[in-house]
Amino acid sequence: MIKRFPLFVLIAPLIFFGCTSKKEQSTVVVPGVKFLKSATLWGGLVATEYQLENGLKIILVPDKQAPVYAYQVWFDVGSRDEKIGKTGIAHLFEHLMFKETAGMTEGEFDRAITTLGGNTNASTWVDWTHYREELPAGTLETVVKLEADRMVNLVLDQKQLDSEREVVLNERRFRVDNSPQGKMYEALYKEAFIKHPYRWPTIGWAQDIKSYTLQDLKSFYKTFYSPNNATVVVVGDFDTKAALNLIYKYYGEIPSENIPARQLPEEPPQDKEKKITLTEPVESEKLASGWHIPSIDDHDLAAILVLNQILFHGKSSRLYQILVEQTQIATEVGGWVPEWNDPGLFEVEVTLRGEHRAEEADKIILEEIERLIKEGVSPREVQKAKNQYESKYYQGVSTAAGKATVIGHYQMTVGDFTFSQELLSRVGRVSQSDINNVAGKYLRLSNRTAAYMKRKS
User: Fold this and answer.
1) What is the pLDDT of residue 9?
2) Which is the catalytic residue, given 94, 267, 339, 390?
3) Could you confirm whether 390 is annotated as catalytic?
4) Do domains 12-251 and 274-455 have the same CATH topology?
5) Model pTM greater than 0.85?
6) Which superfamily is assigned to 12-251 in CATH?
7) Is the domain defined by 274-455 classed in CATH 3.40.640.10?
8) In what order do the strands lie in the sheet with 230-236?
């Protein structure tokens, strides 16, 4: 799963950001609910953060533009929080949470949401897990009740474990074991990282999935599915005071838990290039490269995001033009920059055309990077990249669900739901020299891992 949150703004009059006044902060008072902060986002929408006594955080963004709303629950746990030998357990819970609770039979959650005219889904990633619903206005109490119920009353027994274990193993076979691309990226991350948990796949290693015990599940659920490890985000057509009262009513009595402090191993700097070759029955060869880059809150990330737009993102990018349009040795070129809590990989993927080899594309990519470092980028390229980035960002936040997802993502990764605005500002200040600096600093051969997917004869 890939999440992209491009951020840049050229039309400043349309965006306002900052703390609201004391008068605005004190307009909604609900017993048992503490006000934390408020900010104005996306053309005047006010986002306000609250907290219950048990630690549950709540971010509300009323928006009457359409009679719908998005309700999302974000848990501050992802695959990086798993233990060696128990990888994939965070993803397993994405499945288990739709099963049975003490007061709700299996399938009842989904039926309740669809009966209201809504839809529901969930995602697990390296830094977080989140559950989401989109519904028509006027249905909030049912959703709050359902989500609070499965936070504390999930049934965990051997039957549920055995059933969902097999479902996840089948998913792994489909997404990884029988997928050349899945195998390629799993191998890339395993090779690129030697200590940090980002080295293992979110879905987990097959042998680990087979090893889960019922006690593993109960311990994980009790620790990480607690209110003081969660944030509720609601965006759309609802009444703030009514929403706070409902959330307090259904979540307020759930006890908090002791959550162990994270002690993740720091990934050491990579000092030499790594290459791996995989052979699969593919129609054409593929190349995947990954350069180590800093975490989401590092100031260099903004320039890397713009650099990706210039080199790899979209049909007008340098490498798409060279590899697909001019030399025609590839059919697809793409790049992706993760906005993760810890340092990740700047990914580049190329699908070759016909009999062309991955090494051909790799050579051209490295030559173009070297040319960019030596000759720089033009003001037009930088501005164009920012425009493209801005456009993609606003497409992402055009719906209530999109807004809620951006808020939740930054709340989990940075601890600040307003960080999208800071990143937006940083991208806006990226200069030509910034692009050159990050290209030379991070796109070094010694900092790169490359995976070649070759055709099995």
Assistant:
1) 28
2) 94
3) no
4) yes
5) yes
6) Metalloenzyme, LuxS/M16 peptidase-like (3.30.830.10)
7) no
8) 33-41, 45-52, 57-62, 230-236, 68-75, 129-136, 119-124
